[in-house]
């Protein structure tokens, strides 16, 4: 009986954020596949699924989708933790369609904008021509956007502290030799903040002074 209740609880938890857990399952499968590849083949394989200038010029839709299905580091567990902490609550709060819209509105524009900045740097001589094949793959842009949009789930004045911390996390790396990915992360967070219209009507903001149960949405 307890086992059945436990399984029912797990199923209810997974069903509350189906998109998050399906995505995690896909990432687990691709990570396992990545670990089975010879090291000399792995980088080239990922490069063809990267949102770099070369691949975007050839097949932008394919790489924008494919780049969200692989983890460059090959470490799945940290992302499982981050998805549980950020993606799952966001999906339960916004609903799967709106959550997915935030992910797309962070991932796609941030990828395109950061690569456009890189193209400008190449044309002005501030970046080498070889940068067109820069490896820029992974799910972190969508994650950055969702982390930012969750600020609207928190009541004022606590929201301001959260958003300052989020922007600091994504801005500080720019001070120490920014990469395309660093720029992309900050842009994705800003695009996430721009998704405010999607959070309207999604319930009362959570006040940390009240019960944490409010986060369950």
TrEMBL record:
The keyword Transport does not apply. Its main location: membrane. It comes from the Bacteria. InterPro entries: Rhomboid-like_sf, Rhomboid_2. Keywords: Membrane, Transmembrane, Transmembrane helix. Pfam families: Rhomboid_2 (PF20401). The chain crosses the membrane at residues 12-34, 63-86, 98-122, 134-153, 160-177. It is a multi-pass membrane protein. It is found in: Membrane. This is Rhomboid-like protein. The lineage of its organism: Bacteria, Bacillati, Actinomycetota, Actinomycetes, Kitasatosporales.
């Amino acid at each position: 009986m307890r086992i059945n209740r436990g399984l029912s609880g797990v199923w209810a938890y997974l069903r509350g954020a189906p998109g998050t857990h399906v995505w995690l399952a896909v990432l687990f499968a691709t990570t396992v596949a990545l670990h089975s590849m010879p090291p000399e083949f792995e980088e080239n394989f990922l490069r063809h699924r990267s949102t770099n200038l070369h691949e975007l010029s050839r097949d932008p839709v394919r790489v924008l989708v494919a780049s969200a299905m692989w983890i460059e580091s090959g470490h799945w567990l940290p992302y499982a933790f981050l998805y549980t902490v950020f993606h799952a609550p966001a999906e339960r709060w916004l609903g799967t369609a709106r959550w997915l819209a935030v992910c797309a509105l962070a991932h796609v524009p941030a990828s395109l904008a950061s690569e456009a900045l890189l193209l400008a740097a190449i044309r002005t001589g501030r970046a080498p021509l070889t940068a067109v094949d820069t490896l820029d793959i992974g799910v972190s842009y969508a994650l950055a956007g969702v982390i930012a949009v969750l600020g609207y789930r928190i009541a004022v004045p606590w929201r301001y502290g959260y958003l300052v911390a989020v922007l600091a996390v994504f801005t500080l790396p720019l001070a120490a030799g920014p990469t395309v990915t660093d720029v992309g992360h900050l842009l994705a967070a800003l695009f996430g903040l721009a998704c405010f219209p999607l959070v309207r009507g999604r319930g009362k903001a959570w006040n940390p002074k009240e019960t944490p149960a409010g986060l369950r949405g």
